Fold these 2 entries.
Entry 1:
Amino acid sequence: MQPRMNRELVHGLVVAGALVPLAWLAFGAAQGGLGANPVETITHVTGAWALKSLLACLAITPLRRLSPRLAALAPFRRTFGLLAFLYATLHALTFFALDLGFALARLAEEIAERPYVTLGFAALCLLAPLALTSTRGWQRRLGPRWVKLHRLVYVAAALAAAHFVWLVKKDLREPLIYAALLALLLGARVVWRLRRRASS
Amino acid sequence: MRLIRPSLMPERDVTPEAICLQRRSFLRAGAAFSAAALFGCGDDNAARAATPAPAELATLPNVVPAPERFRTSEALTRREDATAYNNFYEFGTDKDDPAQNAHSLRVRPWALAVEGAVAQPGVLDVDALLRAFPLEERIYRLRCVEAWSMVIPWVGIPLADVLKRFAPTAEAKYVAFETLVDKTQMPGQRRSTLDWPYREGLRLDEAMHPLAILAVGMYGRALPNQNGAPLRLVVPWKYGFKSIKSIVKMKLVPRMPRTTWSDENANEYGFYANVNPAVDHPRWSQKSERRIGEWSKRPTLPFNGYGEQVASLYQGMNLRRYY
C-alpha cells in the first residue's frame, strides 16, 4: 500500500510541476507580465514544454533499463506523452488564433508553404492518435498493434525538433540542445537493438 | 560582478551624470538577473529592471518637432517595451539580452569616422555632432524582418545634413556603415554569431532621403545603450536590421558594400531590405505584423507605409529580385 501511495504522490507532483509553466502563462497573460511580445512568449513557452515533455517521455525507457528500481516509472510515459500533446495543441492554437486570426485559408497556406510549419503540424498530427489511444481500453483493443502505433512518437519527436531548428534566425544553440538530447535518447535505443541482435 | 577600480579610470574623464546613474542601474540589473535565474522565467522583467529610467538618461538640447510628414499619429509603443525587446546581437541573441547586458557599453567619448569618397574626411565627436546640428523629433514606424513592429519617437539629425558636411565626391554611390567592435564592451562579440563588425549600407540617394536619420535619442532622452547609443541609423521604410546601431564609421564608396545579414544568408536578406508584404522571407510570411502591445496581427504596408515618399527611389526596379 505504502509504495503505491508514494507513487501516486510523486505522479501528482510531477504533473503539477509540468503544469507550472501553463499557470505562469495564464497568470502572466492576465497581468500583462509576459513581456513586450506576449504572443511570442506564449508560443515559445508552449512549444518548448511540448518538446521537453516529449524528451521526458522518451527518457523513461532508457532510465528503466538503467536500474530495476526505476521500473516503476513506466506510467510516466503516458503522463509525459499527454503533457506533450497538451502543450503542442496549445502551441498550435496560439499560432492559429493569434498569428493567423483563425483564418483556415491562411493556415492551409502556411502548412503548404513554410517547411517549419509543415513539420510542426505533422508532429501534432502524429501525436493526436497517440493521445486518443493512450487509455487502457485502447491498449487492450489494439493489442500488439498498439505498440507499433505508439512508435510514431519517435517520428513526432524528430519532426518537432527539426521544426524548432528550422525556424531560428541565427542562434541555433537552444534548438540544437533539444535535437542533441533527442539523438541521444533515440541512439540509445538503436544501440540496444543492435546489441540484442548481435547476442541472439 | 566586477567593479571598475578608480585607479584604472583616466583622470581627465569626469564621469558624466548619466553614466554614473547607468552604473547604478547595472547593479540593479545584477539583482534582477539573479531573481530571473532563480525562478527560471521572467527574464523580461529583469530586462525592464535593468533599463535606465528616463530620468537617468541624458537630456538632449533644443529638440524641435519635425514637420507633420515625419510624424505618424499612431499610438506610440510603450517605452518599457521599446527598451526591453531588442535585437542587438552584440549583447546577446535573446530579445531581453541587450537590455540586460548593454550597460557595459561606454558611449562617451565616442568618435564617428567619415571617410572614403568625401572631400573632407574626418572624425566627429558625438557631442560635437549634437552641438553642430539641430535635433528633430520624428515619430516613425519600425518594422522588424521578424514580423513585429513598433512606433517610436526618435530624436535625430537628417543623415543627408551630416553627409553633406563631409562633401561626398562624384565617386560616392553608396554609404557603408559599421558598428563598434569591442569584446569587452560588447559581450555578444565573444561568440562569432555574426561576422563582426556589424555592417550596413545604403545607396547614396537612399541615405540622402529626408526620412533617413541618424538618431541620438528616443522618447525625448538620449538613446539607451540597448537601442544603439550613442548614435544609430533609422531608415523607416526598410526592415529594422538596416537601421544599424552604435555606429563608429561611415564610408562613402563607389560600389555596393557588403552588409551583415546579406553576408549571413543572401537568400533571406537582401541589400535593399525594403519592407514588402508581397515578398515573403523564405521561411516566414511578411504579409502581416504584430504591433508590439497588440494581440492580433495587422497587414504590413509596402515600404512600411512610406511608399508615397520613397517608392520613386526604386522606379523600374524589380523588387522581387532586389529584396
Note: The longest strand of chain B covers residues 148-158.
Entry 2:
Amino acid sequence: MKDTEMPISRDSALGRLLGADKAPALPKDFADRVVAQTADRAAPLPQARSGNGGVRRWRSGRRLAAGAVIFGALASTAAATGLLDDLPIALPSPEKVWATITGQSDASEPVDPPIERTPAQNEPETIKPVKIEGPIDSPEELEEAFRRVDEVRTNRADTRRERIDRRLDNAIDRRREQGLPVPTPEQEQRLRDRIDRVRERREERVDQRLDERRDEMRERIENGEELSREDFIREQRDAVGRPGRRDRLERFRDMTPEQRRSRIRQIREQRQQGLRELIEEEDASQPPAVGEPDNASGSTEEGNEKI
Amino acid sequence: MTSDGEFYSDRQDDEAQLIARIAARDEHAFRSTIERHAERLHRIAYRMMGDAHEAEDIAQEAMLRLWDHAPRLDASAGARGIKLGGWLKRVAVNLTIDRLRLKKRTSDSEVPERADDAPLADDQIQSEEEGAAARALIADLPERQRAAIVLTYYEEMPNAEAAVVMDMNIKAFESLLHRARAALRKKFEDQGGAA
C-alpha cells in the first residue's frame, strides 16, 4: 500500500486540520419537530411487486410456449411428410378419440341441440326505422306509412320510458351507496308520476304537431301530389321551423372547452334537480325551480321523430 | 468508540422490537429512535455537506423515511436481519449525495458562508478558519469519496460496515477509500500542508 493510501493519522497535520471541524449539535427540540411532522405524513405506498418472480414466471412461460410451438411444428412436419404412415404406429382417427372421451359413437353429432335464443319477456323488441322507398301517391300507401311510423314511435317511447326508470333507479342506488338521503317510496312514486305527466304532455304536443302535419300530407295526396322520403323526415321541418337537435349540437360544438364544460355541468345539475328537490324539500308538491325531471330522460331524441 | 463517545452496538433484538413498534405507530419508540440515531445522521450529513441546516433537514428526512418504511422494514427485519442504524446511515448518505449533486447543478459555491459575522475572539477565529479549511478540503472530493472519508475517519466505522452503508462490496469500497485518502492528501499538500 502506498503512503498516500494509508489511514490518516489523527496526530498528523492533515488529521489535526480535519479534527478542527467540529460538528454542531442538533437543536433540543429536533425530536419534537420530527414527531410532529409524522402527523402530516401521507400513508406509505404499498410494497412494489417483486420483479424476480415475474421474470421467472415469464421465463418458464416462454419456455413452455416455445416448447409447444416446436412440438407442433415437428408433429405437423411428420404428418405432412407421411412419416407417420411409414411407421408401425396405429393412430386413431379424431372421431375415435372423441368417442373415447364422450362415450358416443358419432363425434360429429352435437351433444345438445343448439339453444335458440329467445328474447326475454322484459327485453324490448327493437323495430328498425321505417324506410320510405319511392314516392307515395295514394292514400292507402300514406296510411300504411303512418301506421309503420307509429309502430316505431310506440317502440321508442317504451324504450325511453324504461330508460328513464332505469336512470332513476340508478340515481337512487348511487345516492344510497354514497350515504346520501334517498326519497321515501311515496316521494319516489310522486317523482315517477310527475315524470309521467311531463312525458304525456310532451307526447300530446308531438301528437298534435304530427296530426297537423299528417292532415297537410293527406291533403297533398288528395290534390294529386307525390310525397317523398324527405317529407317524412322531421329535420326538413326543423330547417324552416324552430331550431332542432342538430342546431343545438352545432352550437355546442362552437363553444369553447370552458363553455362546453359549463354547459355540461348545467345539464347535469338540471338532471339531478328533480330528484334532489323531492328529497330536500319538505313540500314535495312544489314544482321544481330549475328544469324538469324529464330532462334526465333524454328528451332531445324528440328531434329524430318521424311524422 | 466514535469521537463523540458513542458505541456502535446495534443490538438486533432491540432494533427489531423498535422497528415493530414504529410500524405500529408508537410515537414513543420513534422518539427514542430519533434520540438514539439522529445525532449521528446529522453529523454524517454535516461533514459531507458542510452546512448545519441542510444536515438537519437530511437527518429529519431520514427519520421520517423510517416512519414511512417501518411497516415494510418490520416485515423483512426478521428474515434479513436489517440493522436499523445501518439502514438509517445508508438513507442519510444517499440523501446527502443526492443533495450534493443537486447543489452542484444549481450553484457554484460548495462551502457555505459563515452565518455569523460578529467579532470573535482570536482563538475562536482561528478555530473557525481551521474548520472552514477542513470543510473546504472535504468539499473538494467527489461525493462518494467524501462519504467514505466521513464514515471511516470521522465516524470511525470499520470498512466492512461502511461498505454496507454505501451499498458496495468491500473491495470496491476499499478502492474508493484509498482514492479518497490519496486525493485528500494531495489537496492538503497543494495547499501547503504536510500530510
Note: The interface with chain B takes residues 1-2, 4-8, 12-14, 17-27, 30-31, 33-35, 37-38, 41, 44, 47 of chain A (CB under 8 Å).
